[in-house]
Design a protein that fits this description.
Elements: H1 2-16, H2 19-30, E1 33-34, H3 35-41, H4 46-58, E2 62-70, E3 73-80, H5 82-87, E4 98-103, H6 107-118, E5 124-129, H7 132-140, E6 146-149, H8 161-167, E7 173-187, E8 208-209, H9 216-227, H10 245-253, E9 259-263, H11 264-269, E10 273-287, H12 297-303, H13 306-313, E11 318-319, E12 326-327
Parallel strand pairs: 4-5, 4-6, 8-9
Antiparallel strand pairs: 1-3, 2-3, 6-10, 7-9, 7-10, 7-11, 7-12
Helix pairs in contact: 2-4, 3-4
């Protein structure tokens, strides 16, 4: 069985050694796209893209998520599968030159990764959106060096602490504040469905685009619904689930859903209306002893700068007063 698994992984890595296929997977990680979209963005012929797409689909790296009739033509939307996010680690550069971060998706991390690329001699930052819980588990398994999380403790008084203590018993962990950010309901411009709050999610005419299990946003939503005597079973949900806040926004823009919970920065980027719900703290989680590693110092030092705070704040919906602050020995 182990030999078969290794052979399968080898075949997938071989499949992704084609630069065009890797481009397709990464585009479909960002949001669902059609064959036409992919061909236009990659400046290629649809027939060539279809060839690569079929191979990726057969390997379980992308999947058909929805279809729409546009001008009498059936448009098929494809999206990267959860497996693709984990396999993507196989093409990470040398571990001594790249900071690998698993965790919840955040637009600010994308901007920080871009700034790190622009810094001469700085390590690259690769942030893979697998959800807060899976990020912490990956950190414990030493698959990554940093995890990103925003898990509200059951008490409702703090973020991440109880989860970190449970997953890393007896180990000193540092929580490094990325920022406080606004989350709320994303709806189409003008709010045509007249969504006012969480209670409206139970309406039969409302389709929610949800996040994947283990995502901090989904954990919050499940807790918030429970306080109102509701559960996700009471909510009409569109498919597939969204792995990132951008995918939540894209589902609404493309008419596949009416509402989703996401950050204000995603609503702003996609020109959607935003109904505020709560503010939360997003932390970078790492072993305390790792804070002095040469690989991680450039990232930690950059978080302390006014330039970083300005970059994050420019996205909208972020409060950066505490950006870079560390809580040691959690």
């Amino acid at each position: 069985m182990d030999d078969l698994k290794a052979l399968t992984q080898f075949n997938v890595i071989k499949l992704l050694s084609d630069a065009r296929r890797l481009q397709i997977v990464r585009l479909l990680m960002e949001k669902p796209r059609t064959l036409t979209h992919l061909a236009a963005e990659l400046d290629s012929y649809p027939a060539k893209i279809r060839h690569h797409l079929l191979k990726l689909e057969s390997a379980g790296l992308v999947e058909l998520t929805s279809t729409q009739i546009v001008g009498g033509v059936v448009e098929k939307y494809y999206q990267a599968t959860a497996r693709a996010y984990w396999i993507n680690l196989a093409v990470v550069p040398r571990p001594d030159s790249t900071i690998v971060l698993f965790g919840s998706h955040d637009p600010a991390l994308e901007q920080i990764a871009q700034k790190m690329r622009e810094k001469k001699g700085a390590p690259a930052l690769l942030a893979l959106p697998v959800g807060s819980l899976d990020g912490l588990i990956a950190l414990r398994q030493q698959i990554c060096q940093v995890a990103g999380a925003h898990l509200l403790d059951a008490s409702g008084a703090d973020y991440n602490t109880s989860y970190v203590r449970h997953i890393f018993p007896g180990q000193a962990i540092t929580l490094l504040t990325l920022a406080h950010r606004q989350q709320g309901l994303l709806v189409a411009p003008g709010n045509p469905r007249q969504v006012r709050g969480l209670a409206d999610l139970a309406r039969p005419d409302i389709r929610l685009v949800n996040r994947q299990p283990g995502a901090g946003t989904r954990v919050w939503l499940e807790q918030a619904l429970a306080k109102r005597g509701l559960s996700l079973e009471d909510v009409r949900q569109s498919k597939p689930v969204a792995v990132t806040h951008r995918q939540v926004a894209a589902a609404i823009v493309e008419g596949r859903a009416d509402v989703g919970v996401g950050v204000l920065a995603a609503a702003t980027a996609f020109d959607l209306d935003f109904i505020p719900l709560f503010e939360e703290r997003y932390d970078l989680v790492l072993p305390e002893e790792a804070t002095d590693r040469p690989l991680l110092r450039p990232l930690i030092d950059y978080l302390q700068t006014s330039s970083c705070r300005q970059t994050i704040g420019s996205l909208g919906g972020y409060e950066t007063t505490h950006t870079g602050e560390a809580r040691l020995g959690v």
